[in-house]
């Protein structure tokens, strides 16, 4: 009797192991056939697209361009202290006589002529502040430009890390989504058999209820995992800035 009991237990164990192995093989084959990473764009491609579409990186580009322009303005600020004036007048003007021009003090005669007059003048002033602060203003502008450049480099690194994480989260969510679906399908098959067994009196209401609860729980888990998959997909699309087709 003992040997017979051991034999029965061994057969049950073998059958259970075979059943579990069959399920594992099914899931593994399904995951291989439905490997989303084979249909997604390459990770490097997604990173490149994300950098091109990133509003944050565009902001740093504009900020760097602004401060790079401020460097040129600071270098040429001394030109603000140079003034060049020109004027033109046309009309009748009183002029000195030739004697007066020659220095004859006895000549008091002025004569009027119709003529054009041009006036050109230049002036320069150099406040001490513009002299001593020029170098500091140029250095400040360069420092701000460098800061924008380094901020962009750091933002690019952060963006790369985020995309790698979201990419892997999407693949993981899809795998769990597929596994959840496989579990639901397995419990649906069991549920059909449970309906027949319960109708034929093979199982009681307690066992039948337990199997139905397991099916409902697997469906609930499947829906939760489907939601996680969609969230992971939309998160990656939002970061990259395109709709991902697969």
From TrEMBL:
UniProt-listed InterPro entries: MdtP/NodT-like (IPR010131), OMP_efflux (IPR003423)
Pfam families attached to this UniProt entry: OEP (PF02321)
Matches recorded under Gene3D superfamilies: Outer membrane efflux proteins (OEP)
Signal peptide start and end residues: 1-20
Protein name, UniProt field: TolC family protein
Organism of provenance: Croceitalea vernalis
UniProt entry keywords in alphabetical sequence: Signal
Keyword DNA damage appears in the UniProt entry: no
Family to which the UniProt record says this protein belongs: Belongs to the outer membrane factor (OMF) (TC 1.B.17) family.
Keyword DNA-binding applies: no
């Amino acid at each position: 009797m003992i040997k017979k009991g051991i034999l029965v237990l061994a057969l049950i164990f073998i059958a259970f192991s075979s059943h579990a192995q069959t399920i594992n093989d099914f899931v593994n084959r399904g995951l291989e056939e439905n490997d989303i990473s084979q249909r997604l764009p390459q990770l490097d491609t997604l990173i490149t697209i994300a950098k091109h579409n990133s509003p944050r990186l565009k902001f740093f580009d504009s900020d760097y361009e602004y401060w790079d322009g401020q460097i040129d303005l600071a270098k040429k600020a001394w030109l603000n202290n140079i003034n060049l004036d020109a004027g033109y007048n046309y009309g009748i003007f009183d002029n000195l006589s030739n004697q007066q021009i020659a220095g004859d003090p006895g000549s008091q005669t002025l004569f009027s002529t119709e003529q054009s007059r041009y006036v050109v003048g230049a002036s320069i002033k150099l406040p001490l502040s513009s002299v001593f602060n020029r170098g500091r203003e140029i250095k400040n502008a360069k420092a701000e430009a460098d800061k924008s450049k380094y901020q962009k480099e750091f933002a690019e690194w952060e963006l790369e890390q985020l995309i790698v994480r979201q990419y892997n989260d999407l693949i993981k969510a899809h795998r769990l989504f597929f596994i959840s679906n496989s579990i639901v399908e397995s419990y649906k098959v069991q549920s059909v058999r449970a309906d027949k067994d319960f109708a034929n009196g093979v199982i009681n209401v307690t066992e039948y209820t337990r199997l139905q609860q397991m099916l409902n729980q697997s469906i609930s888990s499947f829906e939760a995992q489907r939601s996680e998959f969609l969230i992971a997909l939309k998160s990656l699309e939002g970061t990259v800035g395109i709709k991902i087709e697969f």
